[in-house]
Amino acid sequence: MFLQRFHLPTVEHIHFNPHDLSVKNRLITYSLNSSRVVIEGLPQIFWADGLPWREANLWAMERVTNGEALLKTVSSNLNGLLNYAKFLESRSLQWFEFPSRKADRCLVQYRGALIKARDAGHISPATASEYMRNCISFYRWVRRRGLLNPLLPLWKDKRYFIKFFDQVGFERTLAGTTTDLGIPNRKRIGVTLEGGLLPVSAADRDAILDFAKQNASPELYLMLALGFFTGMRLGTICDLRIDTLERALHDPSAKGLLLISVGPGASPPVHTKFGVTGQIWIPEALCSEVLEYTKSLRRLTREASAAGEHQDLVFLTRFGNPFGRRNSDQSSAINVEMSSLRKLGIASGIKALRKFRFHQSRCTFGTELAKLALATLKIIS
């Protein structure tokens, strides 16, 4: 099985064809149900040994097919559950075992690990809260489906009440249920930029790029360069097409800069957040460097393994797959590479990489552009 190449749990996005199951003469047969909607890109979790996490995958499938949640939402939930799966395997824990000693229970240990990661600055408070919430939602479904003993001590439910005034001034009370495992989203006090991230200095940017060029894959290095010098989101970079760069036009008002078209209305279409169509600046030298990469043996070998609709993507994994998730600004492959780059950077004394996240390349671009604009205004005035 090809999935055995992975050494950690992973999420695969599959083409799901609904089937009906029937039993006749003690034989189980499956028949294609053409009346049900085919799901393209259904997320499924696989353990490190290549076996599927059947319960989590069934949870995802049921929510999408029943219309309970959008595919994008389910993909986000499964990504959070993937983090839990990695934690379980790293501690040799089973997701369905709940010993009587509370401190030994997998959910309690996972909550502690999330809080520790949050306090150390490795994940944001919102991410810690979301990951724990995903786990609790999954276990509620498992218990409701009768897949776990209802007497197992998963957590203690707590009731909460929120008072508010409606549009005509009457006081109302909203009641709900939470658990003792929930992690409050305590946001940092003060002004923060998009995603709670801060830009890095121009010197740190250059140090990160120099280190990535020598120690990271060519794909990650070029993606970081695109983030720092174009401000594109990761989802847009992962969906960038060769034709997009080849059709770049010179900006007559800015020497050395080209304009590329992105969004659903561009030709070819390139993913953008909220489906916005527009043009993006890209330095001519960087555009040439990326196009040169697309002609390399490394890139062409990956293209040969790719499906037809993916062969025009600038960036492909070594298995010929897109780096990004479908219609998403997230990439598990880049997350893994960024984690490795941070570890190497810390070991090599690159302080700028200690807490660096890919999205900081985008806010760094915005900050440097604003500095340039302010400097230009001062000269004019």
UniProtKB/TrEMBL annotation:
CDD domains the UniProt entry points to:
DNA_BRE_C
Q: Which Pfam families match?
A: Phage_integrase (PF00589)
Q: Could you list the residue ranges forming a coiled coil in this record?
A: none
GO aspect biological process, one term: DNA recombination
Q: Which UniProt keywords apply?
A: DNA recombination
> Which InterPro entries does the UniProt record give?
DNA_brk_join_enz (IPR011010), Integrase-like_cat_sf (IPR013762), Integrase_catalytic (IPR002104)
Q: Where is the Tyr recombinase domain?
A: 195-381
What domain of life? Bacteria
Q: Which GO terms describe its molecular function?
A: DNA binding
Q: What is this protein called?
A: Integrase
